[in-house]
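To the team - zinc ion complex, inputs and output below.
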Amino acid sequence: MLQERVLGNILVRHGVVAAETLEGLYDQQQEKRAHLADLIVQNKVASEADVARALAAECCLPFVESIDAEAVPIEVGTRLPIGFCRSNKLIVIGESEDEVYAVCADPLVTDGIDDVRAAFGKPVNLRVGAGEIVVEAINRVYERKETASDLRSDEELGDEDERDILDSDDDAPIIRWVNSLFAQAVKERASDIHIEPEEKEVVVRYRIDGELYISRRASRQFMPSVVARVKIMAGLNIAEKRLPQDGRISLKIAGRAIDVRVSTIPTSRDQERIVMRLLHKTNVLMDLTELGFASRDYHLMSHLVTRPNGIVLVTGPTGSGKTTTLYACLNKINRPNVNILTAEDPVEYEIGGIHQVPVQAKIGLTFASALRAFLRQDPDVIMVGETRDRETADIAMRASMTGHLVLSTLHTNDASSAFTRLVDMGIEPFLVRTTVIGVLAQRLVRVLCPHCKQPYEASLQELEELGCGPDRTRWRINRQLGHAYRVHGVPYQPVGWTEGALPIFHRAGGCEKCEGKGFIGRKGIYELLMADDVVGQLVLKNADGQSIKRAAQQQGMDTLRDDGAHKVFEGTTTVAEVLAATQEDVIEE
Ligand SMILES: [Zn+2]
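Output:
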């Protein structure tokens, strides 16, 4: 009670509480056996910050507005038990040679501060912060401790103990650490895990929706053990440290089967670097309807993959989702009465009912030789992972002409360039014309988190950048959106918008659901070029890519950027995402 009176007097003196109000609070306090400070906040007499500021002033201590929990070293911030920290509303935020830094909500509770001094064996350099801020910081630091590695807690044991762990056969902490890397990657939907030796430490980065994020750091001395552990899991040679190696790990995490492709390479830092790609079955095996095709593209694509013969090509850079699209196509036509053979490098996912052959160039099993063998296996549909050379292209053409449907990928920026690429490989234009029935170009764009995306009025410049100027592509957007579209002085009247208004686009926010990233997952943007008579004539004449593209557009093809614009209008993604994904997709007028 005396303590509460002291606190009350301080608060009155600093103008936080009126003396009259205080008397009423004292009564409540005795009745409820509550703390005065808590009652002041509950009764909305003053905020926790007001109370803390008054206490700081009274005790001549610095007042802090906020605590950067990320900057608190975990081993320092969590050395005291969490219960102690919470009940004393006190957190240790740092330590130097001769003192320890702490923030507390109530500097009058000297017992807690004495305990800190005793635990660290150093005087306490104290600051005062609002109770809620201190508690929040305590929670954040302990959360970090939980997700952080076991290695870190081992590091805290000091030099001698560290050496013990490395030297001894007890590698359980390493195993736990590596396992937790996978568990966290799955939780955060990472597609790749990079483990990289830096000068002083090991850095782990995750690729999530195409972007790399630093996830953890560990002392560099652990790198050899981590590399060894990963190599054991992937069935690689531990002793070989000078050559790159590739392997594979099959895991089950939280009931989900995950295949991990492991690649190690030696680096100049005298340590190997590891990149692991996680293949989630659910991500790889999607239905054609789930890929985000506009309705024209979906219907044409469904039509193409059910044709009895012809070549369908999917183009785009590495990591643009081509394999997912090909698998979705195979999924659509996969029936007991259809013989489907694939040659892949490597086989990303085994699909029931389909015969998949991993290409192994080392032993001479190339795409071309696999394809040649397939023709003797009475196939209906053949998928070739990639058409890289003339030989593969030749056999694919032959397969198509003898009544097979062939699906493959090609490295070109857009759909129209596929024809010129094949001709450049040495294929006769008439063969290209006869066999290729459709080319799909694609990219992936990040999908805005639906929980925190922020609407705003689009600018004319953005519309321009998306190729939605008043002239050439207006009719295209009209058709896509199914309503009137005008801009630049010409009336612009989408449904539900007022005269002259600009469309509403969205930008990324950041919330708990998306871990502050503003995006969740990715979707494709597509350009589907049908090899119709108009396009066919140009192919026969060996026309350039741009002419073919223009002709296809006149036939109703949406370019990558058009489809991207459509997805910006829908609120699926941002202008920046589409522009970044379609840099090369510029039409020369
Ligand atoms: Zn969000």
